[in-house]
Amino acid sequence: MPNKKIQIFSPATLANLGPGFDTIGLAVDIWNIFEFEFDTENFNIQIQGEGEKTLPNDSSNLVYKSFSLPFDFLKINIPKISLNIKNKIKLESGMGSSSSAISAGLVAANYYLSDKFTKTELIKMSQSLESHYDNIAPCILGGIQLCVLNKDDILFSDIEYDQNLKIILTVPDLKTNTERSRSNLPKKLSVKDFVHNMSRFGLLINSLKSPNIKDTQIAFRDAFHQDIRLNNFPKLKLLLNKINEMGALGSFVCGSGPTIAGITNEDPMSIFYEIADYCDKQAIECRFIITRISKKGTYIKE
């Protein structure tokens, strides 16, 4: 362990991308910052920003729980730490705040242990806390990651994409509990809906490198989870469909929602203004973020 103090930057992530339920996600250029000091006399956690009044600052904190995992795996003592968390990712918004926390803890522990584990091993280790690979994989690896479960193994494929892609996020002043949202999804899927999503998912993967609007607006469409997740938010459901009319390459619900993403490879400002105007007229309380895909995943600054 070269340094006793490090900073870890861990990105927001957007999962599913429409038809790719539980199989694909991407990292974006929005970062939580975690300042670790190792081998301190006292255990201490401070939180600033999102969740500063609600997140625990004891051993039940998600960052600390994930930090503990590699030490528990090796059956060795967990060092005392001082941790300062600066959260920019909104909680329960579909932007991977939990994965950001878990990734930071795992990467910090692995640094302390002189990189004893590979990134893939860390991702597998995370599953006791985060059972969805489509957020944790891009959070640690960066870019767009396709996640393939193969019996007891997991494969990751780094998907190529147009480097000019920009993402316009509409982040409502609402929260969505992931597990509750998933419990509302159907347990069975018709052949028609299965074919719908499979064909569009293939088209999506094929289109991300050189997108054209005719294909991508079809490719991002989903027949399984998005409408159900927005059932209680009819204005957001309408916005999801209207973004295409504004000239976007496509739109999708981020994870469990309620955040909605529009994507373009041109100047995003005209789409942003139309989304903002719609939300203002519909009295949707929200914030807007224009960002891009981050090729870099969770990283350390010493």
Describe the structure.
This protein has 302 residues and is of the alpha+beta class. The chain folds into two domains: 5-160 and 294-301, Ribosomal Protein S5, domain 2 (2-Layer Sandwich); 166-292, 2-Layer Sandwich (Alpha-Beta Plaits). It has helices at residues 62-74, 97-112, 119-125, 133-141, 178-183, 191-207, 213-219, 226-229, 234-245, 269-281; strands spanning 5-15, 24-38, 44-49, 81-87, 144-150, 153-159, 166-172, 250-253, 260-264, 286-292, 299-301. It is globular. It starts with a strand and ends with a strand.
Shape-level CATH architecture of the largest domain: 2-Layer Sandwich
Radius of gyration: 19 Å
Number-wise, the strands total 11
CATH topology of the largest domain: Ribosomal Protein S5, domain 2
Quick one: CATH class of the largest domain?
Alpha Beta
Name the beta content range: 25-35%
Please specify the SSE layout and strand pairing:
Layout: E1 5-15, E2 24-38, E3 44-49, H1 62-74, E4 81-87, H2 97-112, H3 119-125, H4 133-141, E5 144-150, E6 153-159, E7 166-172, H5 178-183, H6 191-207, H7 213-219, H8 226-229, H9 234-245, E8 250-253, E9 260-264, H10 269-281, E10 286-292, E11 299-301
Helix pairs in contact: 1-2, 2-4, 3-4, 6-7
Produce a short descriptive summary.
This protein is α+β, with helices and mostly antiparallel strands and 302 residues long. 34% of the residues lie in helices and 26% in strands. Strand 5 and strand 6 form a beta hairpin.
